[in-house]
């Protein structure tokens, strides 16, 4: 039985750890991953969140190991309210992106959806006469972050591209250190876009979230539809209020 991790879900920092009733190992992993990810944000609300983790570790342990998914003690309810209070101080902007080329390489496009904390949603797509899958995946994220400008809020970026997620979170530091060479001593492909992405996300609080493509994730599917529509119509280069009728 998977216990609801509601108090951390509320803050919306994207933790995906599963906690099972009576499973202390999963609880320890959950706690450590939560703390590690939160530290990386380096914001005041993140520091406050870490303090809650530290001060209430034993309460969290007791609740997650001993209660069912639909039962919460008064102390656990207080923790949930604390997380809601922090979230209100640092709400998250969600950015969803997908892109591709048909064939690859060939005509391509990307689709981007941005959802603000107040519920406002915008969408954007752009067509290219000759490109590749990976360039469209990268450009979708780049254009979305550039459009948001100098936002102080945390941005949660969801993409179905492990190339994008792993490139910016795992590989890029080695690439730069090695003069933009891969571990196989070959030139890094799409270097121009990696340089641009690295520059625009520097100093921002970013959550990188991967989802499997064509797996029923609603926003990812809609981004795919936006990109497909742009390829079909050979156009698309403006932001507009998002509405299903726009597809």
Question: Can you lay out the helices and strands and say which pair or pack?
Answer:
Blueprint: E1 2-3, H1 6-11, E2 19-20, H2 24-39, H3 44-55, H4 57-66, H5 74-89, E3 92-102, E4 106-115, E5 121-131, H6 133-148, E6 154-159, H7 162-177, H8 191-201, E7 206-210, H9 218-233, E8 237-241
Parallel strand pairs: 3-6, 6-7
Antiparallel strand pairs: 1-2, 3-4, 4-5, 5-8
Helix pairs in contact: 2-3, 3-5, 6-8
Mind explaining what this structure looks like?
The protein contains nine helices and eight strands. With 247 residues, it is α/β, with parallel strands linked by helices. It has two domains: 2-89, no CATH class; 92-246, Ribonuclease H-like superfamily/Ribonuclease H (Nucleotidyltransferase, domain 5, 2-Layer Sandwich), CATH 3.30.420. The model is unreliable at 1-22, 39-43 and 67-71 (pLDDT under 50).
Can you give keywords for this protein?
2 domains; 247 residues; alpha/beta; globular; Nucleotidyltransferase, domain 5; 21% strand
Short overview:
With 247 residues, this protein is an alpha/beta fold.
Beta-strand percentage range: 15-25%
- The total tally of domains equals 2
Q: What is the CATH architecture descriptor of the largest domain? A: 2-Layer Sandwich
Q: Order of strands across the biggest sheet? A: 7-6-3-4-5-8
Main sheet: strands, sense, barrel: 6 strands, mixed
Compute the gyration radius: what is it? 20 Å
The CATH topology of the largest domain corresponds to Nucleotidyltransferase, domain 5
Percent in helix: 40-55%
Q: Specify the CATH class of the largest domain.
A: Alpha Beta
